[in-house]
UniProtKB/TrEMBL annotation:
Residues 28-53 are annotated as: Disordered. The chain crosses the membrane at residues 160-179. It comes from the Bacteria. Residues 1-26 form the signal peptide. This is Sortase. The lineage of its organism: Bacteria, Bacillati, Actinomycetota, Actinomycetes, Kitasatosporales. Coiled coil: none annotated.
């Protein structure tokens, strides 16, 4: 007889625990679908850019008549999205001039806070020479180019001196031989 009250108490405790959980699930499903968090991707063009360059960003997660803001460690400042011609939003962002070559993540948040998007931009360095401090020979980066060009052109000063020395020895040898011939012709 004692098991019946014990079973009844256990059923009441289980119902009390399960009721708030099921009510919370029903409430979350009944929320307005416009308040759902949406996620998407950021379209980046061009996807590879050098420091100081500009990229175009596009998202469609926010809708067409809204705005958004985008950030990245590669950007010089925050990107502000505006409605594009078709659907979605568009923004332009400038890459920091001191950005190191790497892949940088982009985060975009819709103004209403109900949409987010992520993407990636790759910063690359093109092998253009740039002035270095201190400038070694004036002209900034031209010194590096002039040095490389001189190395590719051929013989240097050392080769010219050796050539002049050998030419002088040959001239002296010809002069002595000519002088010997004149003496033998007179005798």
């Amino acid at each position: 007889m004692r098991s019946l009250p014990l079973t009844f108490c256990a059923a009441i405790v289980a119902g009390t625990i399960a009721l708030p959980a099921s009510a919370a699930l029903a409430e979350s499903k009944a929320e307005d679908p416009a308040n759902e968090k949406r996620s998407g991707t950021v379209s980046v063009s061009p996807s590879r850019v050098s420091p100081g360059g500009e990229v175009e960003l596009r998202v469609d997660v926010c809708g067409k008549d809204r705005s958004a803001r985008g950030n990245s460690e590669a950007f010089a400042s925050e990107a502000r999205f505006e409605p594009a011609d078709g659907k979605g939003l568009v923004a332009h962002a400038r890459i920091r001039s001191d950005a190191a070559p790497d892949d940088y993540e982009i985060w975009v948040t819709c103004k209403d806070g109900h949409g987010k998007a992520t993407g990636t931009v790759t910063v690359v360095h093109h092998g253009r020479p740039s002035p270095v401090a201190p400038v070694r020979a004036g002209g900034g980066g031209a010194a590096v180019l002039a040095e490389e060009a001189a190395a590719d052109e051929g013989p240097g000063t050392r080769h010219a001196i050796i050539g002049l020395g050998l030419g002088a020895v040959a001239a002296v040898a010809v002069a002595f031989r000519s002088a010997r011939r004149r003496r033998s012709a007179l005798h």
